[in-house]
TrEMBL record:
<keyword id="KW-0378">Hydrolase</keyword>
<dbReference type="GO" id="GO:0005737">
    <property type="term" value="C:cytoplasm"/>
</dbReference>
<feature type="active site" description="Nucleophile">
    <location>
        <position position="165"/>
    </location>
</feature>
<dbReference type="GO" id="GO:0004067">
    <property type="term" value="F:asparaginase activity"/>
</dbReference>
<dbReference type="InterPro" id="IPR033844">
    <property type="entry name" value="ASRGL1_meta"/>
</dbReference>
<comment type="similarity">
    <text>Belongs to the Ntn-hydrolase family.</text>
</comment>
<dbReference type="InterPro" id="IPR029055">
    <property type="entry name" value="Ntn_hydrolases_N"/>
</dbReference>
<feature type="site" description="Cleavage; by autolysis">
    <location>
        <begin position="164"/>
        <end position="165"/>
    </location>
</feature>
<keyword id="KW-0645">Protease</keyword>
<dbReference type="GO" id="GO:0006508">
    <property type="term" value="P:proteolysis"/>
</dbReference>
<dbReference type="GO" id="GO:0033345">
    <property type="term" value="P:L-asparagine catabolic process via L-aspartate"/>
</dbReference>
<keyword id="KW-0068">Autocatalytic cleavage</keyword>
<protein>
    <recommendedName>
        <fullName>Isoaspartyl peptidase/L-asparaginase</fullName>
        <ecNumber>3.4.19.5</ecNumber>
        <ecNumber>3.5.1.1</ecNumber>
    </recommendedName>
</protein>
<feature type="binding site">
    <location>
        <begin position="193"/>
        <end position="196"/>
    </location>
    <ligand>
        <name>substrate</name>
    </ligand>
</feature>
<feature type="binding site">
    <location>
        <begin position="216"/>
        <end position="219"/>
    </location>
    <ligand>
        <name>substrate</name>
    </ligand>
</feature>
<dbReference type="Pfam" id="PF01112">
    <property type="entry name" value="Asparaginase_2"/>
</dbReference>
<dbReference type="InterPro" id="IPR000246">
    <property type="entry name" value="Peptidase_T2"/>
</dbReference>
Length: 304
């Protein structure tokens, strides 16, 4: 069963013309993670690489392609967690860097802190030699169009809300488990708004004894129920990765009318990609097979 890597490209509304881009994006990201796992790399290396691929892909709301805040600027959140040590690293409201997930990993590896924010995170990035990139390089025509559209008083909140956060979970050959999640947040959010993504237990969680989860959906709702940790709690109680994911998502829906999605693994390599929204691009790679889907109930396979 091991190794395995599972990724998501965000729960929510995906316009038809963008579905191909999302599918091909999650499939190439999962392949990149799987190549690392097959080459003896760690689950942490695999989830970070998979997320970097999606941050660099303008189809997703992370890195280049992030949604814009109310001022038309990009502020990003990211989290990594290492299931062996329970160490984690996060950045919130960071600007002008291409790969927030890399910076989150450096926070975990090189500082004694769990999260750096805003200007302090930028200073740390500079000290680590991470180049600053111009704001414009993170903004796509599509994200600017959606930002403008959503400023209109008659904006459709469903179409304009959650979309495209990216995340990954993996178990390597040694049985070490990791998660990574990265996002531009919610469209037209207030300046300085921080969502669930960089918060351990909400945007993700990893524990070698239980498994790992990376989440997507409305951050303020996810935080209320600490969705990632809630799912792992159900697994601790004996539920499978799939049943626990469904229980967590069902609770968020019944308790708060919140929709979202998750990718989940357990220590044996059982995995799930589950969502209560209409769409979530996801992909998994295990035993040389690539699995992927977008709509509820969809599950395609091909050789990895
Ligand atoms: N699309 C998303 O998943 C958004 C993210 N969870 C946030 O609230 O920042």
């Amino acid at each position: 069963m091991l190794p395995v890597v599972v990724v998501h490209g965000g729960a929510g509304y995906i316009p038809k013309e963008r579905s191909e881009l999302s599918i091909s994006g999650v499939c190439s990201a999962v392949q990149a993670g799987y190549t690392i796992l097959q080459g003896e790399g760690s689950s942490m290396d695999a989830v970070v690489e998979a997320v970097i691929q999606m941050e660099n892909n303008p189809a997703f709301n992370a890195g280049c392609g992030s949604v814009l805040n109310i001022k038309g600027e990009v502020e990003m959140d990211a989290l990594v967690m290492d299931g062996k040590t329970l160490g984690s690293g996060a950045v919130s409201a960071v600007r002008n860097i291409a790969n927030p997930i890399q910076l989150a990993r450096l926070v975990m590896d090189k500082t004694s802190h769990a999260c750096l924010t805003a200007e302090g995170a930028s200073q740390f990035a500079r000290s680590m030699g991470i180049p600053e990139v111009p704001l414009e390089s993170l903004i796509t025509e599509y994200s600017r169009m959606r930002w403008k559209k959503n400023l209109a008083p008659d904006a459709n909140p469903v179409e304009c809300q959650m979309l495209g956060t990216v995340g990954a979970v993996a178990v390597d050959k040694e049985g070490n488990i990791a998660c990574a999640t990265s996002t531009g947040g919610m469209l037209n959010k207030m300046e300085g708004r921080v969502g669930d993504t960089p918060i351990i237990g909400s945007g993700g969680y990893a524990d070698n004894l239980l498994g790992a989860v990376s989440t997507t959906g409305h951050g303020e709702t996810i935080m209320k129920i600490t969705l990632a940790r809630l799912i792992l709690f159900h697994m601790e109680q004996g539920q499978s990765a799939e049943a626990a994911s469904d229980l967590g998502l069902a609770y968020m829906k019944s308790r708060l009318e919140g929709l979202g999605g998750v990718v989940t693994v357990d220590p044996q390599g059982h995995w799930a990609a589950r969502f209560s929204s209409n769409y979530m691009a996801w992909a998994a790679a295990q035993e040389d097979t690539l699995h992927y889907g977008l709509y509820t109930g969809e599950h395609f396979t091909q050789k990895a």
